[in-house]
Amino acid sequence: MLIDAFARKITYLRISVTDRCNERCAYCLPKDGVSWMDEKELMSPDEIVRLAEAAIGLGITKVRLTGGEPLVRPDILEIISRIAIIPGLKDLSLTTNGMLLKKMAKSLVEAGLHRVNISLDTLDPEKYRKVTRLGNFEQTWQGILEAEKAGLHPIKINTVVVGGFNDNEIIPIAKLSLDHPWHIRFIELMPVANQEDWGAGLPPVEERYFSSQRMHELLSSLNLEEVPSPDYSGPERTYRIPDGVGTVGFISPLGDHFCMKCNRLRLTADGCLKSCLLVDKEISIRDALRSGADLTSFLINAVANKPIGHELSSHNCPDSRCMSQIGG
Ligand code: SAM
Q1: Which residues line ligand 1 (CB under 6 A)?
Q2: How many whole angstroms from 293 Cα to the centroid of ligand 1?
Q3: Which of 7-11, 186-190, 193-197 has the lowest mean pLDDT?
Q4: Rounded to whole angstroms, what are the CA distances from 71 to 19, 100, 102, 147, 161?
Q5: How many domains does the chain have?
Q6: Of 268, 254, 144, 256, residue with least CA distance to 209
Q7: DSSP state string for 165-189
Q8: Tell me, what DSSP letter sits at residue 36?
Q9: Per-residue confidence (pLDDT) for residue 311, from 0 to 100
């Protein structure tokens, strides 16, 4: 069992399988000139699987594949099928922008994936294009429907709320949970800004941050009822619109941060262990992975050094990597 210095049990591993993405979300990646990691820097399927086996052997029960966009990795089905059969794993999920889901949902299920989280910030095709720069709303929407049909349940929809951009869509997006058994989660924008044009095209910095408390207030006309979270150890607070078949949740990394409940460890696409998304500190394990060395001590060490929490409230923001490299 992996237990950190603050008695938190670490049971959840998030693996970024690539930093590449087929979108360029304004709060995540620069618009032009992104320098992707060299192919040789990325973890191979063997290396990813070896790390997952070591982590699951130490008590990790939940693994999520993320990125970048995990579905652009050509060998993603191989990675999934090999992780899915590791004894001790209870939950295997993937975070995606949904652009490739229509064509891949069925194969993902066949490979052994349990479920997906899909990012969807707006229901307006023009705004979708504006925030993702390369995305297509209809393609993602069809992907969500296909994931539902293929059985990647429960489907979670992640909506990053940006003040002055999509705060006026909180009600229609929440209402998707009336007819669909989806978990809609509204997420506060995080200042992970290691690029100069962070947020270019979005409203000015002072308007962008929109607290989950304000989101909740905006939804007051829907009479949300608090319900148990679909994932008891998860970070969100969960509600239901009366008679809705899905749920509505709020993830507040800034307003009401959940660090004392954090059970996560991360592997970056180039093989570094990070025990906190929002702190730059990391341990490179790529050489150990490549030399076949035992990974146990690296995992124990990363967990032992997990910080008590991030320091965004004292304006201590991570600046060594963008989200797509860490795996948001
Ligand atoms: N490409 C996949 C996707 O779009 O879901 C997975 C990677 S993406 C980095 C994972 C999640 O991080 C997405 O839901 C995205 O909206 C979120 N994200 C990226 N930058 C963020 C930021 N600055 N603040 C809050 N969420 C962010």
Answers
A1: 21, 27-28, 66-67, 69, 95-97, 119, 158, 160, 187, 189-190, 192, 323-324, 328
A2: 32
A3: 193-197
A4: 11, 7, 11, 13, 24
A5: 1
A6: 254
A7: TTGGGHHHHHTHHHHS--EEEEEE-
A8: P
A9: 65
Model-level pTM? 0.94
Per residue in 293-305, pLDDT tens?
A: 999 999 999 999 8
What are the respective helix, strand and coil percentages of the chain, to the nearest 5?
35, 20, 45
The model's pLDDT over 248-285, given as tens digits with 9 standing for 90+, comes to 999 988 766 678 889 999 999 999 999 888 777 788 99
Centre of ligand 1 from the C-alpha of residue 178, in Å: 25
164, 206 contact by CB (below 8 A): no
How big is the CA angle at 22 (ends 16 and 23), to the nearest 5 degrees?
95
Q: Quote the domain boundaries for residue 121.
A: 2-326
Ligand 1 atom at minimal distance to the Cα of residue 158: 14
From the CB of residue 214, how many other CB atoms can be counted at a distance below 10 Å? 16
CA 323 to ligand 1 centroid distance, Å: 7
pLDDT category, 235, cuts 50, 70, 90?
low
Atom 17 in ligand 1: residue holding the nearest Cα: 328
* Bridge partners of residue 187, in order along the sequence: 160, 251
Residue 51 sits in a domain whose CATH number is 3.20.20.70
CA distance 292 to 286: 10
Indicate which atom in ligand 1 lies nearest the CA of residue 117: 5
